[in-house]
């Protein structure tokens, strides 16, 4: 039976955008359609681990590692906001540009990013990964190494997938209505991408996504089936707006202050129970 939730009878939970982060901490690729297996293809398959933490990552039987061990939004959000990344799946090629801001230091659309890329590297090669490692080591002033342990391992921010399925791969879902309510309460326009989602949905009441924890999301258009396993606890990584890195908000504290009934949580994590094709405009029902 379909669970009763906060959706009005005329409203649906609809996918409004899809996003993939090939390198943990860098900007996303926007997608219209995605073939989902255990997660989005290449999502967080690569990460910039700190050189002095490299021994923690086992190339065979790797385990989930906390984000403090990486150059990412949690450890270097203002720095990484200066770069615009694009990943080409068929060649596993990363291209990186410097972001261009206006005189108020607000990020301009991608067509106004620096004309010439800072680098282009094929991440499936040792030399390509070394090129990216060297670039970001110079950018942050400490040694980092671009690493991957294959398509079956995701450098995610949560242990939820490990706890639920013994697998690091998850999909992060954010409710646009929740972000709008937080924006209204704070008097600041927040972009849902600030919360680094894979899937942005709309049509729900604010915070109604939390009702789906422990339940399934069933697509009306395809075979995709998600099991929603946890709420998303927010950290300082969201305190810098990647589109306006000079403006800093302590969002975890503000969430606690203005929405104490929810605490520092926004978004949910889901694991894929049944693979399929997902597209913008698709709708979901919550099912027990």
From TrEMBL:
GO terms for molecular function: catalytic activity; molybdenum ion binding; pyridoxal phosphate binding. It comes from the Eukaryota. InterPro entries: MoCF_Sase_C, Pyrv_Knase-like_insert_dom_sf. It holds the Pfam family MOSC. Residues 112-287 form the MOSC domain. This is MOSC domain-containing protein.
């Amino acid at each position: 039976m379909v669970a009763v939730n906060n959706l009005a009878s005329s409203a649906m939970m609809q996918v409004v955008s899809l996003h993939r982060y090939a390198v943990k901490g860098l900007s996303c690729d926007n997608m219209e359609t995605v073939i989902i297996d255990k997660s989005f293809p290449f999502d967080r398959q690569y990460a910039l681990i700190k050189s002095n933490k490299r021994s923690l990552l086992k190339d065979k039987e790797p385990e989930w590692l906390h984000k403090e061990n990486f150059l990412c939004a949690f450890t270097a959000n203002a720095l990484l906001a200066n770069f615009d990344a694009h990943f080409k799946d068929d060649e596993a090629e990363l291209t990186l540009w410097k972001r261009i801001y206006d005189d108020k230091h607000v990020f301009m659309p991608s067509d106004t990013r620096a004309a010439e890329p800072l680098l282009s590297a094929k991440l499936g090669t040792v030399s390509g990964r070394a090129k990216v490692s060297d670039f970001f080591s110079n950018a942050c002033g400490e040694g980092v190494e671009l690493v991957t342990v294959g398509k079956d391992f995701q450098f995610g921010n949560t242990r939820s997938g490990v706890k639920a399925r013994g697998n690091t791969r998850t999909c992060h879902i954010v409710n646009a209505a929740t972000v709008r309510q937080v924006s209204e309460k704070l008097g600041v326009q927040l972009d849902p991408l600030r919360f680094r989602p894979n899937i942005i949905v709309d049509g729900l009441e604010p915070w109604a996504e939390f009702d789906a924890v422990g339940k399934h999301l069933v697509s009306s258009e395809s075979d995709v089936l998600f099991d929603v396993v946890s709420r998303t606890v927010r950290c300082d990584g969201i305190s810098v707006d990647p589109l306006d890195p000079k403006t800093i908000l302590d969002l975890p504290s503000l969430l606690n202050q203005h929405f104490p009934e929810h605490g520092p949580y926004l978004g949910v994590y889901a694991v894929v129970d049944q693979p399929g094709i997902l597209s913008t405009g698709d709708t979901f029902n919550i099912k027990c």
